[in-house]
UniProtKB/TrEMBL annotation:
Annotated family: Belongs to the G-protein coupled receptor 1 family.
Keywords, in A-Z order: Cell membrane, G-protein coupled receptor, Membrane, Olfaction, Receptor, Sensory transduction, Transducer, Transmembrane, Transmembrane helix
Protein name, UniProt field: Olfactory receptor
Domain annotation G-protein coupled receptors family 1 profile: ranges: 41-286
C-alpha cells in the first residue's frame, strides 16, 4: 500500500485567493482594514451600551451588546489566520489547529444564529405587547436566553467536531477555502462520507434554515398584528436593521450548509461575506438609523474628554 495512503495527515494547506504576491499584499491591507473596523465598531457598541444606563436597562440593547461580542469572536476565529496567510506562501495549518478553528467557528456561529432568533422574539414582544414588554423580557430572562444561545452553539459545534474527527485523513490535505470548515475538510477524508454529510447538512442546514424561517415568521406576524399604516411603518423602521442583519448572515449560511457538500466557484467569496464583511457591517446597520444609540455615543464621546481636547488644540 502507498505510504501517502497509510500515514495520517498532520497538517492541511489552505487555499489562497491568488497566486500573486502583490495581489495578496493588497488583500492583506484590505482585510486588515475590515478587521480593524470590525473591532472598532463592535467595541464601540459594547462600550456605549455598558456606559449608558438607559440602553443597559433595555433588553433590546442588552442583546445588541451581546451580538457585538459574538461578532468580534466570530471574526477573530478566521481573520487573524487569513491575514497571516496573505504574507505566507505556504498557508499551512496543523490538524489540531484546524479542528479547533472548525469547533469555534460553529460554536460562535450557531450561538449568533440563536441570538438573532431571540432578538426577533424581543422585537415581537416590544411591538405586539408593549405594556408587558419589560415584565416579559426581564433581565433574568435575557440572561437565561443568552446562556441558552451559547449552550446551543456549544452542543451544535461539539456534534460537528466529533463527526469530523472520527473520519480518517490519510491522503489529500489541500482545503479549498481560507479557513477550516466542515464541508471542505470532510471532502479530504479517506472513507465514504455520504452518511456523515447527510448528518452534518441536517445539523447545520436545519439550524440555519429553521432559524431563518422562525425569524421571517416572527416579523410577518408583527406586520399582520399591526393594522394601521403608521404602526406598520414604525414596525418596519424598528425591525428593518434586524432584517438586514438576518439576511446578510443567514443567506450565505443557508447557501453553504443547507445543500450537499459540492463545491461552487463562489463558495470562497460567500464565506468572506459572512465571516468578514457581516461582522463589520452590523455596528453600522444598527447605529446609522438608531437615534438612541447615536445619542448615547455622543454622550460617551463627550464624557471621554477627547472632544474637549480636540477643541482646545
Amino acid at each position: 500500500m502507498d505510504k501517502n495512503q497509510t500515514e495520517a495527515v498532520t497538517e492541511f494547506v489552505l487555499a489562497g485567493f491568488s497566486q500573486s504576491q502583490s495581489t495578496e499584499a493588497g488583500l492583506f491591507g484590505l482585510f486588515l482594514f475590515f478587521y480593524v473596523c470590525t473591532w472598532l465598531g463592535n467595541v464601540l457598541i459594547m462600550l456605549t451600551v455598558a456606559s449608558d444606563s438607559h440602553l443597559n436597562s433595555s433588553p433590546m440593547y442588552f442583546l445588541l451588546g451581546n451580538l457585538s461580542f459574538l461578532d468580534l469572536c466570530y471574526s477573530t476565529v478566521t481573520t487573524p489566520k487569513l491575514l497571516a496567510d496573505f504574507l505566507d506562501n505556504a498557508k499551512h495549518i496543523s490538524y489540531n489547529q484546524c479542528i479547533v478553528q472548525l469547533f469555534f467557528l460553529h460554536f460562535v456561529g450557531a450561538a449568533e444564529m440563536f441570538l438573532l432568533t431571540v432578538m426577533a422574539y424581543d422585537r415581537y414582544v416590544a411591538i405586539c405587547r408593549p405594556l408587558h414588554y419589560m415584565t416579559i423580557m426581564s433581565r433574568g430572562l435575557c440572561c437565561v436566553l443568552i446562556v441558552a444561545c451559547w449552550t446551543g452553539g456549544f452542543v451544535h459545534s461539539t456534534v460537528q467536531t466529533i463527526l469530523t474527527i472520527r473520519l480518517p485523513f490519510c491522503g489529500p490535505n489541500h482545503v479549498d477555502n481560507f479557513f477550516c470548515d466542515v464541508p471542505p475538510v470532510i471532502k479530504l477524508a479517506c472513507s465514504d462520507t455520504f452518511v456523515i454529510e447527510l448528518l452534518m447538512v441536517s445539523n447545520s442546514g436545519l439550524i440555519s434554515t429553521s432559524s431563518f424561517v422562525v425569524l421571517v415568521s416572527s416579523y410577518a406576524t408583527i406586520l399582520i398584528r399591526i393594522r394601521s399604516k403608521e404602526g406598520r411603518r414604525k414596525a418596519l423602521s424598528t425591525c428593518g436593521s434586524h432584517l438586514m442583519v438576518v439576511t446578510l448572515f443567514f443567506g450565505p449560511c443557508i447557501f453553504i450548509y443547507a445543500r450537499p457538500f459540492s463545491s461552487f466557484s463562489v463558495d470562497k467569496m460567500v464565506s468572506v461575506l459572512y465571516n468578514v464583511i457581516t461582522p463589520m457591517l452590523n455596528p453600522l446597520i444598527y447605529t446609522l438609523r438608531n437615534k438612541e444609540v447615536k445619542s448615547a455615543m455622543r454622550k460617551l464621546w463627550d464624557r471621554s474628554g477627547l472632544a474637549r481636547k480636540k477643541q482646545e488644540m
